Amino acid sequence: MPIQPAILAFAHDGTPYSAAYDDLYHTISGGLAQARQVFLAGNDLPGRWCGQARFVILETGFGQGLNFLATWQAWRAAPGRPQRLHFLSVEKHPFSATDLAILHANYPELAELSARLRAAWPLLIRGFHRLEFVDPGYGTVILTLAFGDAIAAVPQFVGEAEAIFLDGFSPAKNPDLWSPQLLREICLMAAENATVATWSVSGALRSALATMGFTVEKGPRFGHKRQTLRACRTSQTVHEATPESTDRHAIVIGAGLAGCLVSERLATRGWRVDLIERHDAAAQETSGNLTAAMLPMLSLDNNRVSRLNHASYLYALRTLAEWQQTASADNGIDWADCGVLQLAHDAGQADKQREILARNGFPPEFVRFVDAEEAAQLAGLPVAGNGLWFAGGAWVNPASLCRAALARAGTNLHAQFGRSIETILYEDSQWTVLDAAGKMIARAPQLILAGATDTIRLPQAAHLPLFRFRGQVSHLPAPTGSPLRAVVCGKGYLTPAYRGLHCVGASFHRGGEAALRDGDHAANLQHLQDMLPGYCADATPQSLAGRVGFRPVSQDRLPMIGQLHHPDARPQGRDFSAIERWPGLYIASGYGARGLVWSMLMAELLASQLEGEPWPVESELAATVDPARFLLRRISPPPAASEA
Fold first, then answer.
1. Do 135 and 71 touch, CB atoms closer than 8 A?
2. Burial of 447 (0-12, 13-18, 19+ CB in 10 A)
């Protein structure tokens, strides 16, 4: 179901107003004053986060974002602030960035912060959106926005909230946001010392909080509200605690996209990372391809797989743009958000593409259907037919992304290249990595296997359904002044000229040799002809150079991200937490042919798991990439994805 944006409107006194709920967004006393007096002071902030490494706030009703902006401003001003401040919020009807600019103009003291929020504002697509604001000299503020119904979104958060802002329209106008069911889910997220603040003092709310282990008291007057409400947790409700690592030191095996990006996510959190790579440099296997295309995978029913995929795509585009802004001249990323055109193979698939858009109601800034004439204008060349246009789609040189990640990791990273792993051992709560001579390469309490299919040589991972798929890319000399402006995809793909070459690809076969095959060049050229008739028609398989890479592909063609289970583990119903796992042993692999899309959000997910922070994606989506999922398939196989 598509998101219905908020409609900008004002009451007679200029206060933002919702006609849908017939209620104001804040009292006439002012939204910023309410944020500071009711929510910050009501949770004893910033005092309570003083001296903590991180702090987590949960909010219902993001609205125009004033609670978040006021919190960010207070965090900046507070001595002893946490280095990482997480703000989790839900909004059923988000404003557009354009409308937010109008609303934020009333708060010039927040101009810098509100401009940064709007610059990062996500497309209005249902689900989680992770926005990271690095403040040099202060630390990092991480906003995880869930667009959609609160009762569906809140149970999907993984993390513990130390302060809770109960906001939104009044219980009389929007009872769902104050229902006992939702309050119960919120309380399940509350840490042992959690506090709650709100402007509502309804008897039902006070009773519900008291029932769930909170001591409730009425707070001071605010505006026309004679009283506000504060609550503090006094007894522990049963909930899943997120474990924290006491020794923030990890070994990462493999310096392709998976390993480099996991290393960066950990190192920038302050972890010490030993990166081990058997080649003499990073990105020497499939991550060394000249260019790769970035576009999402859509489905008719917008199932979990496609939701996770397009969340990864959107996160990757934001991350690329943010990194490029702060990159040095030596560590920039070679990429272009030129747009991606996904052509339909035939009339039947074109009909399916239209149906996907009709069912899901994606905003046109994300994807729209274009006819052959418009598709040709976007591509810069005549094309074979209709298709989907992803305006934010991109091509990327993966090796430059790997280099940028390692540069960002800084001195917390110790990379060892040209070192091959033979054995890993677990003893005394430490993982030891040994070479073929039995010499120790590194030792740490946490070990992440990111070495593609080389991973399953190790006995601890040999049970994983991970397979080696050969992909051959053809390098096609770009004609002088090539007019190609966008990535074009069909059964294959063609990327715009980079270093004088187009990349045409790519084959996808299990196993095989590393040498180039004329037959695969011929297949790539045929796919090019099917997409762009007549373009480079004089090219022959024998005339082409290219590159072969071997992709790690899981049984269901989805990534494997998370703590690795024992080979003899047995499922207990559908409970992931009951599966026996190797202590401190994790995997980041199985990205297949979509590594560029998966790698950045999956690295953030894994780092969040290791750090014990709130996760960047819904728990049900994280379950689709849990390496132990194959154990649960014995009970109930998942539905197959219906891909565009």
1. no
2. buried
Find out whether 392 and 321 touch, Cβ atoms under 8 Å. no
Dig out the tokens for 90 from the structure. Answer: 């839900």
What crossing angle do the helices spanning 111-119 and 97-104 adopt, rounded to 10°? 180
Amino acid identity at 163: A
Q: Could you please report the per-residue DSSP string of 601-639?
A: HHHHHHHHHHHTPPPSS-HHHHHTT-TTHHHHTTT-PPP
143-186 tens-digit pLDDT: 999 999 999 999 999 999 999 999 988 898 999 999 999 999 99
Pairing of strands 228-233, 214-219: antiparallel
Beta strand pairing status for 161-166 and 54-60?
parallel
Report all structural domains of the chain as residue ranges with CATH numbers, in order of start: 17-233 (3.40.50.150), 249-285+399-465+555-632 (3.50.50.60), 338-395+467-551 (3.30.9.10)
580-595 pLDDT per residue, tens: 999 999 999 999 999 9
CA atoms within 13 A on the CB side of 555: 13
Q: Report how far residue 258's alpha carbon sits from residue 253's, in angstroms, rounded to the nearest whole number.
A: 10
Phi first, then psi: give them for residue 283, nearest 5 degrees.
Answer: 55, 50
Cβ atoms of 373 and 341 within 8 Å: the answer is no
- Pick left, alpha or beta for residue 146 (phi over 0 → left; psi -120 to 50 → alpha; otherwise beta): beta
CB 208 within 8 Å of CB 57 = no
Phi, psi of 411 (to 5 degrees): -75, -10
Q: Which of 589, 575, 592, 116 is nearest to 318 (CA)?
A: 116
* Alpha-carbon radius of gyration of the chain: 26
In percent, the amount of the chain with pLDDT more than 90 equals 82
Q: Which letter, b or e, does each residue of 319-341 get, where b requires 16 or more Cβ atoms within 10 Å of its Cβ?
A: bbbbbeeebeeeeebbbbbbbbb
Q: Using the 8-state DSSP alphabet, how is residue 169 labeled? A: S
Residue 184: left (phi > 0), alpha (psi -120 to 50), or beta? Answer: alpha
With contact defined as beta carbons under 8 Å apart, do 387 and 375 qualify?
Answer: yes
Residue 374 identity (one-letter amino acid): E
Percent of the chain whose pLDDT exceeds 70: 95
The pLDDT of 420-425, averaged and rounded, is 96
Tokens of 410: 């800084």
pLDDT of residue 170: 87
